[in-house]
Write a structure and sequence with these properties.
CATH class of the largest domain: Alpha Beta
Structural class: mainly alpha
Strand content: 5-15%
Number of domains: 2
Strand order of the largest sheet: 1-2
Largest sheet: 2 strands, parallel
Shape: elongated
Number of helices: 6
Radius of gyration: 25 Å
Order of helices and strands: HEHEHHHH
Helix content: 40-55%
Distance between the termini: 67 Å
Number of strands: 2
CATH topology of the largest domain: Rossmann fold
Length: about 160
Amino acid sequence: MKAFAAGEIHILVSTTVIEVGVDVPNATLMLIEHAERFGLAQLHQLRGRVGRGAHQSLCILQTPSRLNEVAQQRVQAMVGTTDGFRLAEVDLQLRGPGEVAGTKQSGMPEFRTANLLLDSDLLSLAQKEAERWVERSDERQKLIDALSARTRVVTVG
């Protein structure tokens, strides 16, 4: 790595460990074999290892000729933008956010009435309304008292 950074050697072959913390301004070309196997965040990190200097750079994503639909969308997203925020949005759409309170890191949450991706404006409005409701403690307590009076509470012990 030191020889590459110093310009003593001109080709570096690496595993994906190269994606973190490598800053070699003279790195101008990267070939990622089987790019379809990587997620968008990792591809974005890898691509960020080239083009750090004054010279024009190129990142080549090598894939088989046939890709499944999701892999094709990931590769197209990488080709279409260098904006990490946009890539994060595409990744969210493709993989889903996972569980809010749980261990799943991908997949769609199971809300009864809302879709986290399609209803973001509605969910944002609901959050603001909930915050407003929390601030109105007197009215909230009156409602709780009224509902409690209508409901029979049974203690099991």
